[in-house]
Amino acid sequence: MGEFTRPKVPEGVTEFVTTTQKEIVPGKFHVGYTTTWKSFQKEQPYQTPKKP
After folding, report:
1. d(CA 13, CA 16)
2. b/e for 25-49, b at 16 or more Cβ within 10 A?
3. Which pLDDT score is estimated for 8?
4. How many CB atoms lie within 10 A of CB 10?
5. What's the rounded mean pLDDT across residues 34-43?
6. In the chain, what is the straight-line distance between the N-terminal and C-terminal CA atoms, in Å?
7. Which segments of the chain does DSSP mark as H helices, in order?
8. Cα–Cα distance, 21 to 36 (Å, whole number)
């Protein structure tokens, strides 16, 4: 059985997501990708409402 080679895939970068290729681990079947999400929601501190 020959050595398994896999082409290098460039890092995928968009506005909210970055995808990188995982390294080959000998003895494991699945070689996938890591997806990192950037936060697109902003958190505001809570303020008590005004009393009428």
Report:
1. 8
2. eeeeeeeeeeeeeeeeeeeeeeeee
3. 84
4. 8
5. 89
6. 78
7. none
8. 11
Element (H, E) at 19: strand 17-21
In the numeric block, which tokens belong to residue 18?
């970055």
| Cα gap 24→39, rounded to integer Å | 29
pTM over 0.85: no
Structure tokens at 40: 């697109």
In which residue are the tokens 């681990």 written? 25
- How far is it, in rounded angstroms, from Cα 40 to Cα 38? 6
How does pLDDT run across 3-38, given as a tens digit for each residue? 666 788 899 999 989 999 888 777 777 778 899 999
Q: What is the pLDDT of residue 36?
A: 93
